[in-house]
Backbone:
């Protein structure tokens, strides 16, 4: 399984698995990244791909020193379930 890629041109973090791409879309302004939407193809559903994608994206966000707005319900739920990421919230 490949690593999470920040596709800045399309403003999304991507995770390619089995020929499909799961992605979480974002907007960045003033040191804050807003996650707006996450898509996991039905073929990858139920395999924890979404969670792996969000964890990888949040790890990169932390390394970049950004704060997070979890507009996307999936990202918000992930952060709610993983308190170690709550310090990232703007």
Residues:
């Amino acid at each position: 399984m490949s690593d999470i890629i920040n596709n800045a041109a399309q403003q999304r973090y991507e995770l390619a698995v089995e020929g499909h791409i799961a992605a979480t879309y974002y907007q960045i302004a003033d040191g804050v990244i807003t996650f707006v939407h996450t898509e996991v193809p039905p073929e990858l559903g139920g395999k924890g791909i979404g969670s792996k994608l969000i964890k990888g994206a949040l790890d990169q966000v932390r390394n970049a020193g950004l704060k997070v707005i979890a507009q996307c319900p999936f990202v918000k739920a992930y952060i709610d379930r993983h308190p170690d990421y709550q310090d990232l919230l703007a």
About this structure: The chain is about 30% helix and 35% strand.
